[in-house]
Every structure is written in structure tokens, then in C-alpha cells.
Write a structure and sequence with these properties.
InterPro entries: TPR-like_helical_dom_sf, TPR_rpt
Order of helices and strands: HHHHHHHHHHHHHHHHH
Number of strands: 0
Number of helices: 17
Structural class: mainly alpha
Keywords: Membrane, TPR repeat, Transmembrane, Transmembrane helix
Length: 373
């Protein structure tokens, strides 16, 4: 019974029912070893070989795709393309690995039929080879994709640089010359005068005169503005200051004499003009005003001198000869007066004036006959 119990226990451990051991051809106590592990090992080896072949085929497909992808970016001409030599090196670097794995795979197939343990090691060795193949085919497209952002960044930098330069404002201090400063003040004074801002205009004229006190035109404009504002004393002071700085500024002397004449001070005006003897041809107005003031004051000698100077400067002007004849007649210089009237008669065409000249000639003839008798 004990032996029978041991057999039953042994069968229970092996998963067999009583009598199955006998039908299978073995005893319950000791049977031959099973061949199932070897079949499983052989199946695993076959699957490993199939996996290696599939990986090789997939690598060839990926390599063809990578070469087709390499051809497309080269036609686009990215900003930093991958050199063809580098692509060729990458492809050449990949191919030896592929050719090397093929004989290795065949060797492993032959060895797998002999030893299952060596086949399992070979299967483990094929995994790094597959990883190397996948790593070799990746760099070419990765370089192309990385080159595009770099090129776009470079283009953005190049586009931003001109915009930064265009937006940059440079402040530079420019020093104006005295002439430019005076011109600016004159323009401001004229604009203010046109708008009726006479006080503001006077301020700008004064600023311009402060820059250049010898500027005759600026001084004349300031004096005229002050006289127009009924500030004739300020106007005369401006002109007098200019004559002190430049006694040959005869324009200022003429303007001051006219202001005095309008202020009914002809003697001061004539005295002012008698202080200088400028060139007649350049200052005809000077001598004309001087002759008018002398006639107004009945200063015949000053009048005769002024008109004589004018007649010599412009001998074709009959009015100068007429004035010279009148002054000479008042001085009792009959011969000089007759010659001046006759000269004026040939140059003047105004009928009333000609009648006046004819009357004066007849009067001079009568005076001459009375004196001679």
C-alpha cells in the first residue's frame, strides 16, 4: 500500500491520472525526460531570426526614404544646407554596418542550429546593431530640420537690424553762426510784425542787434519800428548809438534827419547832415534832403552847394539845375543863376515849370540891366 500511495502522489505531482503513465509508455516512478523545452528553444531561435531579417528589411526601407528626403532639401537651398560630402559620408557610414550585419546574421543562423544558448546571445547582439542602424539614418534629416530654424533666426536678425537702425534717433547739437542767428531773429521779427505783434517784433530786432551791433539794416528796422510806435526818442537813440559805433553809416544819418524833419526840427536835421560829406553818387538822397532842409531854413548857400553837387553827379537832371539856379538867384549870383536856368529849360518838359523858368530869366535880365545902368 505504501508503494501504491507513493506512485499516486508522484502522479499527482506530475499532473497525471492513474494509468496515464502506463499509456504513455513510461512508469510513474521514473520516465524519460521530455523534449518540450528543446522545441520551445528552437521556436524562439526561429522567431529571433525572423526578427533580424525584418529589421534588416525595415532598415533598407528607411535608408531609401532617407535618401529620397536628402534629395528634396538640396533643391530648396536652405540657409545652411548639409554638404553633399557629409551626406555621402553618413550614407557610407551606414552601409558598412548593414553589410557587416548580413554575414553576422547568417553565421548566427548556422550557429543557432547547433547551440541554442549561442543563438540567444546572437539575438541579443543584433539589438545594438539595429540601434546603430536606426541612429545612422537619423542625423541627415535632423541636420536639415535644425538648419531651417537657424536660417530663419538669421533672417529675422537681418530684418531687425535695419528696423533698429531706422528707428534710431541721433541728437546732435548744431552751433549756429552769428549770421544764421541774426537771420532767424529777423525772420521772427518780420512774422511778428505781420501779425501785429509790434512789441514782440521789437524784441527780436533787439536780439539781432545784440548779436551784431554794427548791423545797419537791423538798426534801421528797429528805429523805424520804434518811431512808428510813437517812440521817436527811442528810435533816435538807436540811430545815434549806431552813428557812434560807425560814423560812416550815412543811411542812419539820413533816417535820423527825416525823423527830425517830421518832428518839425529841421535845423537839427540839417545840422546832423552837415556833419558828414559822403560821396554824392552813392548818397543822392542824402544831398537832396540836405538841399530841401536848407531851402526850408532859407540857408541859400547850403542849398546852392547841395544842388550844385547833385547837378555835377547827374547833369541830365533838370531839377538839380533848377534848384541850383534858385539858390544862386537868392545869393545874387546873376550869371550863375541865368546859366543854371537855361540849362534846366533844355532838360525839363513840364509846362508850368518852364513858365516859371522863363519868368525867372526875364527877372534876372531886368535885374542885370538895372545894375549895369
Amino acid at each position: 500500500m505504501s508503494i501504491l500511495n507513493k506512485v499516486l502522489k508522484d502522479l499527482d505531482k506530475r499532473g497525471q491520472k492513474p494509468g496515464e503513465a502506463e499509456r504513455s509508455g513510461g512508469s510513474a516512478v521514473a520516465g524519460p525526460p521530455s523534449r518540450t523545452p528543446w522545441i520551445i528553444a528552437l521556436a524562439a531561435i526561429v522567431l529571433a531570426v525572423i526578427a533580424v531579417i525584418a529589421s534588416y528589411v525595415s532598415w533598407e526601407y528607411l535608408a531609401d526614404n532617407s535618401r529620397s528626403m536628402d534629395a528634396k532639401p538640396q533643391s530648396v537651398k536652405p540657409s545652411e544646407p548639409t554638404p553633399p560630402s557629409q551626406v555621402a559620408q553618413d550614407i557610407n557610414f551606414a552601409r558598412p554596418v548593414a553589410t557587416k550585419t548580413q554575414p553576422d546574421t547568417e553565421a548566427r543562423l548556422s550557429e543557432n542550429t547547433q547551440q541554442s544558448s549561442s543563438r540567444q546571445d546572437d539575438v541579443n547582439e543584433t539589438e545594438p546593431a539595429q540601434q546603430r542602424l536606426s541612429l545612422v539614418s537619423v542625423p541627415v534629416p535632423s541636420q536639415q530640420h535644425s538648419a531651417a530654424p537657424e536660417s530663419t533666426e538669421a533672417q529675422q536678425v537681418q530684418q531687425q537690424e535695419p528696423s533698429k537702425q531706422a528707428a534710431t534717433l541721433v541728437k546732435k547739437a548744431v552751433k549756429l553762426s552769428p549770421q544764421e542767428l541774426i537771420a532767424r531773429e529777423i525772420s521772427a521779427a518780420q512774422e511778428a510784425a505781420e501779425q501785429g505783434l509790434l512789441s514782440e517784433s521789437a524784441v527780436h530786432w533787439q536780439k539781432a542787434l545784440t548779436i551784431d551791433p554794427n548791423h545797419i539794416e537791423v538798426r534801421r528796422q528797429l528805429a523805424a519800428l520804434q518811431f512808428g510806435r510813437n517812440k521817436w526818442q527811442d528810435a533816435l537813440q538807436v540811430l545815434t548809438k549806431g552813428l557812434e559805433l560807425n560814423p560812416k553809416a550815412h543811411e542812419l544819418r539820413v533816417l535820423a534827419a527825416k525823423m527830425l524833419q517830421k518832428r518839425e526840427q529841421p535845423q537839427l536835421a540839417l545840422t546832423l547832415l552837415q556833419q558828414a560829406q559822403p560821396q554824392v553818387e552813392a548818397y543822392l538822397e542824402y544831398y537832396q534832403l540836405k538841399a530841401q532842409l536848407a531851402q526850408q531854413l532859407s540857408q541859400w548857400k547850403a542849398m546852392a552847394q547841395s544842388y550844385q553837387a547833385l547837378a555835377q553827379a547827374q547833369p541830365t537832371q533838370g531839377r538839380w539845375w533848377l534848384g541850383h539856379g534858385i539858390a544862386s538867384q537868392q545869393l545874387g549870383e546873376i550869371d550863375t543863376a541865368v546859366n543854371a536856368f537855361k540849362r534846366a529849360k533844355t532838360l525839363i518838359q513840364h509846362a508850368p515849370t518852364l513858365d516859371f523858368i522863363e519868368q525867372q530869366l526875364n527877372l534876372l535880365v531886368e535885374q542885370d540891366e538895372a545894375t549895369s545902368s
